[in-house]
Specification:
single chain, Arc Repressor Mutant, subunit A, mainly alpha
């Protein structure tokens, strides 16, 4: 199949991502956050306090974007910085109580968007789609070329 063709995997994945992010953006914008901010907040809600490098890895954001997001979220009182108990040189970021409350609220809103998709496609198809996309991600990650060293 030709990459630019109407039925290419690449095109379908990009289109689905854009449409999903657009729907999610509308929900998050009402709460004053972007999808990148949501990725950071959701990651912090799962793991608690982590280093900036671990946060960037988990969110798949460039380190500079993760740092900008954290700076803004700290300013808004949604995230706090602390020092690692194991290594006092490491900075740890974690959700504040306000951040936890926003995550709960935004998580409910994201779930509502997902429920709309489940209502249209059915639970079985959505679950299968999630599993297939996880396989695509894992396969693509394994076959990705190593970053160039400079």
């Amino acid at each position: 199949m030709i990459i630019g063709s109407r039925n290419s995997l690449s095109r379908a994945l990009r289109s689905a991502d854009r449409c999903w992010v657009h729907r999610l953006d509308a929900v998050l914008r009402n709460r004053g956050i972007t999808t990148d901010h949501w990725s950071v907040l959701a990651s912090l809600s799962i793991v608690g306090g982590i280093t900036m490098s671990e946060l960037a890895r988990r969110t798949e954001l460039p380190a500079s974007s993760a740092t900008r997001s954290i700076d803004l979220l700290v300013t808004r009182g949604l995230v706090v910085r602390g020092v690692s108990a194991e290594d006092r040189r490491q900075v740890i970021v974690m959700l504040s109580p306000s951040g936890h409350a926003l995550v709960d609220e935004a998580n409910d809103a994201e779930l509502a968007v997902e429920q709309q998709l489940r209502a249209q496609l059915g639970d079985e198809r959505v679950n299968e789609l999630v599993e297939l996309l996880q396989q695509v991600s894992a396969t693509a990650a394994r076959s990705a070329p190593a970053p160039a060293r400079g």
